[in-house]
Amino acid sequence: MKRREPTDPEDPMYGASSSSTSPHVGDHECITKKPKRNDYEVFLSFRGEDTHKGFTDHLYIGLVNAGIHVFRDDNELYVGEEIGPELLCSITQSKISIPIISKNYASSKWCLRSFGDAINAHKDDLDEMVVNEWEKALEEVSSLKGWESDKVYDGREGELVKTVVRYVMSELKRHFELITPKQLMGIDDRVQQVMSLIDAKFYDTGIIGIYGFGSIGKTTLAKVLYNKLSSHFEYLSFVADIRETSRHKGIECLQKQLINDVLRNPHDVSNVDGGIGFIKSRFTSKKILILLDDIDDKNQLNALAGEGSWFKAGSIVIVTTRNKSILDETVVRHVYQLNELPVNQSLILFSRYAFRKDSPQIDYWNLSRDVVSTTGGHPLALEVIGSFLRGKPKKVWKDTLKKLKKVPDRKVQKTLRISYKALDDEVQQIFLDIACFFIV
Questions:
Q1: Tens of pLDDT along 231-246?
Q2: Of 15, 27, 48, 49, which has the fewest beta carbons less than 10 angstroms from its beta carbon?
């Protein structure tokens, strides 16, 4: 089917809705059609003659500027393809559909047409089942909460657009929460402790540092906090594994990621100073939530967050690091030390990996307690060793326990060695001297 000119009132550029149906299109056809750019996040359904150059255009631009992929009109369709099937595929694959219901919305066969006379006008041309589906769709829409443009903000559509964009961003964030381990232990108390450091009304900009040994759970705690706070922010960025990325690709690469996450628009950074200047100039009007994970040098923090004045009041920067001195030397406002798990929580976490329940089997109880005591409440050790011992006979447990009393698990050793290497030379020597006292 050839593309029609947009002057045609039935053209899809004038809108479509999730209630539109076609007896010739199904899920199979959506799948078998050639691959296209159809990963839409939002589908706008509207009557072009009413709102195409007004509210719909403003909303579309607002959503796109926020980095949201929006299906609006036939600019998204390929020449020569059937418009109906493509529209239906786009509707199905969009995460959010926004019907913009105007006076003549029901007169287009591509829109939600369930308004009295409009339905009756089409009854002679359409299957009864299709008409019934339209009527059902209208009932569903009428039960949804919406906005009336002339009653919200005294009719100021610009403010309404901002509200809709914020709402859409909040809804989309639910689909993109950071992944955290399924087995979490003691996390609620720790989250509550850190949240108590944050201004509940988000008036002040806060940089919060979380420090502790490697793989003790800093990143997991920070991710849970990030997911919990994300609904309060329009601009977000999670910069992961900063220590390794900075070492191999440079701080400029991290600055580019931060800029792209916040502005939703790539920007080349030729040097660190240039990146700092750009971030300071473009981020001051934005309320931002940033997670900077695994920082091991104060220059990294200075280049990415610098000081609170870089961001709009109410912004929050969460920093994780193995080295507390980095937090002491910068403008971090609050510092939280993440310690090992207590014995009771360690046993529960270990049991979840070793037995897939919250407590050991009776005949493995003493062995489990002994194994847990060798980990020192280290979550990674509990996970690695518990997973290894799951389903193994007691002989393997006993042999493993003997080894653990002499040398920790290799994976845990490797992780802890990173924390050791991050220490200054003088501190490393002090650490080794103290360690000698524990050698029998």
A1: 888 789 999 999 999 9
A2: 27
